[in-house]
């Protein structure tokens, strides 16, 4: 199947404000963008939840990684709307709109975990041939280091995660 090449990639850090690996990497790449730039591609490092990062807390009002569903993205912006819902709408505007041809091709959402799972890639769709091939490449490049792939094909989470705005969503967890 002929598919257009991946041209626009975003790297998210700080979806959860107390997961600092992604925050440090995004801030580093915002200052030193040459490290991640590639010819023919736009690569944009992005701090997803700056208020939570500033307070070093998971979130301010609700989990940003659970509000990218149609109801929250379509909510009317009123004064008392939760901060993360408003932020989700902003992110969807910048990197989406979700489900459209204009959405970013790929979003890497960088997280930390306290689980002993090492560096783990998160796959949300077992039928996404591009992402599966990319994961194979990453695993081969990292060998002999382990790089497990966790398939989370959950119907509710699939549509609510920060990375779900992209055509190819990728989660990366690091202990």
UniProtKB/TrEMBL annotation:
InterPro entries: AspA/AstE_fam, AstE_AspA_cat. Residues 6-169 form the Succinylglutamate desuccinylase/Aspartoacylase catalytic domain. Its main location: cytoplasm. It comes from the Eukaryota. Its cofactor is Zn(2+). Transmembrane segments: none annotated. The keyword Hydrolase applies. GO terms for molecular function: hydrolase activity, acting on carbon-nitrogen (but not peptide) bonds, in linear amides; hydrolase activity, acting on ester bonds; metal ion binding. It is found in: Cytoplasm. GO terms for cellular component: cytosol. Keywords: Cytoplasm, Hydrolase, Metal-binding, Zinc. Belongs to the AspA/AstE family. Aspartoacylase subfamily. This is ACY2 Aspartoacylase. The lineage of its organism: Eukaryota, Metazoa, Chordata, Craniata, Vertebrata.
